[in-house]
Design brief:
The chain contains 9 helices and 44 strands. By secondary structure, it is mainly beta.
Length: 700
């Protein structure tokens, strides 16, 4: 593998040594399996994984792990999603049309997905077999336009083949049986271009060296591979320097998607020619773009001085991401990881050790104060995403002092929630924005019993408010949360929580501020002001019935990322004032006065013309001392809805084809569920009783 493309294949030697033709061992959070299968003369390695977000689609193995099977004397590879490394001596770092002949065992296979390392962005195609395709074996030829084959897919691979049902949509065959691969060129290989040196220095707004995200593209979107001086960063169990963007700012390149990270200075070999350079450092900075001409002799170093669009830390607002997965086995890794967070301008990076019924991944060397690492106003903090099951939801514990893993009682989340709370931490539900993995069941069970502090309602460019609003309207306090779920979804800080901190930033000050004061979640917007009767800091207000309450809010959008479509003031989840812009605006303001006749919660939210989103934490108005802020008109109906949800949970059984890490937990799921089900039913009864009291209350 070329030296300028760093991919550390952790555990490959051990995995290969232990692999047999009939059985292979799954490693790591993606269930990496190396298969000793002779796929074809151009294939250097064959592996399978559980998930691939860099495949042009999001591929998931919902079935049993891939395995070698025999059909009519022919060795084949059967599984949901397999990856192949094209031999670098045959093709590496090209930009050509390649033809791939894929031979399948036809019975049980109705089509397939093929994904590949394309020159500009990860690309996938779906192929469904024609009805007349008969016989035991069938060969399809797929044309791969602008194939790059630069080892940029997972674990240094170039090509993926998956079943029709191997995507998040989960529709179609769960397995595909592949019996041969042949890769060939449509035309002779093009000669290599003459290269020159590209040199870059990045400075912050004060002229100090800083880290940032960088894209360098030809007009057609092609990007050179990152050189050795690019910041190496961890991606699952590999270390790489190139990755494709998921969320793309408005004024970024219209085509280029692969980026690297420069830590102050960067130097790399680049083919001669004209390029467009883009540099960004999170949504608080203006995006820098300029043309660049690279010559054989290199020329002068290019200096990019970043400019702030808004200085939120100067106003006491600091960003955090509640959901990042990067392993830290020793403190020696801290500096490199923190530089990655600094490049994305993410101040509080919660690095989550991720558990399942079998064990955990992305392990942290220590929790509590000993697991925190900081430099300036950037910090790494150990946390956990566990328990996490596909029938009860994935949960997040933040700022705990130890990793908690209830092995036998894994489906009972109470002990972990109580442990995190006992440590002074916060506990909540992940993926609420997407309502994935049974998050609805978990919330229905745990919120009324006082276990849940926050809901991750902003993720993957999606904001879902209905769970937050339902529980607030029943009178339960909850905080909005947001997280990237790197490396599964997006870059760190793609969605973030902004917390106001008085004084110097420390992790504890940030968590304290989030738990008790003002905060908001967003990706590309900021709250310039949000006041109640002129007060921008309090989260609770006492007013008299009929007394007017004046609300002012101003939301700003970084125009390099998105423009505002509308901002809305909501009370009990209902829009009471809205301001919009037909063509999009960089800022919008609301001024509204009303006289509440009952206690309520109030929040502000914003939507962009593109993917921009924002939602504040609720502010509570107490009328005449009444602390019950629930929505009396609707709370009974909402409670009955969640009682029905709990009944569905009581009658449910975990489905193995929905388990995210089926390769690791398949043999444990049903037995552990059966063991704890009587106690789980008692917890359901407790939650039902709370809902029953709410449903029985008379409307006011």
């Amino acid at each position: 593998m070329p030296k300028n493309h760093l991919v550390t294949l952790v555990g490959f030697a051990v995995a290969i040594a232990g692999t047999t033709e009939l059985s292979a061992h799954s490693e790591g959070p993606l269930g990496l399996t190396v298969h000793q299968w002779n796929a074809g003369p151009q294939i250097a390695r064959s592996i399978s994984t559980n998930f691939d977000a860099q495949g042009g689609d999001d591929f998931v193995s919902w079935s049993t792990p891939a395995r070698i099977t025999t059909h009519q004397g022919r060795k084949c590879l059967t599984g949901a999603y397999m990856l192949f490394d094209i031999d670098d001596s045959f093709a590496f770092d090209i930009d050509e049309t390649m033809l791939v002949d894929l031979t399948f065992y036809r019975p049980g296979t109705t089509g397939f997905h093929v994904s590949y390392d394309e020159a500009v962005a990860p690309t996938a195609k779906e192929v469904k077999f024609a009805a007349q395709a008969k016989g035991s074996f069938h060969t399809e030829t797929v044309r791969l336009d602008r194939a790059r084959f630069a080892n940029r897919k997972l674990y240094g691979t170039d090509l993926g083949v998956g079943a029709l049902g191997s995507t998040l949509e989960h529709k179609g065959d769960l397995d595909v049986t592949l019996c041969g691969i042949r890769v060939r060129r449509e035309a002779p290989a093009a000669p290599r271009a003459v290269t020159g040196k590209f040199r870059l220095k990045v400075l912050d707004e004060n002229g100090r060296p800083t880290a940032a995200r960088v894209g360098l593209y030809r007009q057609d979107g092609w990007a050179p591979l990152a050189g050795k001086s690019a910041l190496p960063f961890d991606h699952f169990t590999t270390t790489t320097r190139d990755l494709a963007m998921v969320s793309v700012p408005k004024t970024w390149s219209s085509k280029g998607r692969y980026v690297f990270f420069a830590d102050t200075h960067y130097e790399g070999d680049v083919p001669e020619g004209n390029y467009q350079l883009f540099v960004m450092k999170g949504p608080e900075y203006a995006l820098q773009g300029r043309p660049v001409h690279v010559t054989r002799d290199g020329g002068d170093e290019i200096t990019v001085r970043l400019k702030r669009w808004v200085n939120l830390p100067a106003q006491g607002w600091f960003s955090g991401d509640d959901h990042i997965h990067i392993a830290r086995s020793t403190p020696a890794q801290n500096r490199r990881i923190l530089n990655f967070m600094r490049a994305e301008d993410t101040h509080i990076a919660n690095l989550l050790q991720m558990g399942n019924l079998r064990g955990s991944y992305f392990k942290q060397y220590q929790f509590g104060a000993g697991g925190q690492y900081g430099d300036g106003d950037y910090f790494l903090v150990s946390g956990q995403e566990s328990p996490r099951t596909s029938n009860r939801g994935h949960t997040i514990g933040l700022n705990g002092k130890q990793f908690h893993w209830p092995e036998r009682d894994y489906f009972l989340y109470d002990a972990t929630a109580d442990h995190i709370h006992g440590d002074g931490g916060l506990w909540g539900y992940a993926h609420v924005a997407l309502n994935m993995f049974g998050a609805n069941f978990g919330l229905a069970l745990d919120v009324p019993r006082g276990k849940v502090d926050f809901v991750e309602m902003l993720q993957w460019g999606t904001m879902d408010t209905h769970f937050l609003y339902d529980f607030l309207n029943m009178g339960f306090r909850l905080l909005p949360s947001a997280g990237s779920d790197y490396p599964y979804i997006d870059f760190p800080g793609s969605e973030r929580i902004y917390v106001h901190v008085d004084g110097a930033l420390t992790p504890q000050a940030w968590f304290n501020g989030w738990a008790s004061g003002r905060s908001y979640v967003s990706n590309w917007f900021s709250i310039d002001s949000f006041t109640m009767n002129g007060d921008a800091r309090a989260a609770e207000y006492d007013v008299k019935r009929g007394e007017p309450v004046s609300v002012e809010a101003k939301i700003r959008a970084n125009p390099d990322f998105d423009l505002l479509d509308r901002i809305e003031l909501v009370a009990h989840g209902k829009v009471i004032e809205s301001v919009s812009s037909k063509d999009g605006a960089s800022e919008l303001s609301i001024r509204h006065s009303f006289a509440p006749d009952a206690s309520a919660w109030v929040a502000v939210r914003a939507y962009g013309k593109g993917r921009g989103l924002l939602h504040s934490a609720p502010v509570y108005l107490y009328v005449d001392g009444e602390r019950d802020f629930s929505y009396h008109k609707e709370r009974a109906g909402i409670a009955r809805k969640y009682q029905a949800m709990l009944q569905e949970l009581r009658q449910s059984t975990p489905q193995l084809e929905r388990e995210w890490e089926r390769f690791a937990v398949e043999h444990l799921v049903l037995s552990r569920w059966t063991e704890v089900k009587p106690r789980l039913d008692k917890m359901i009864e407790e939650a039902n009783a709370v809902y029953g009291k709410i449903a029985a209350t008379a409307k006011r």
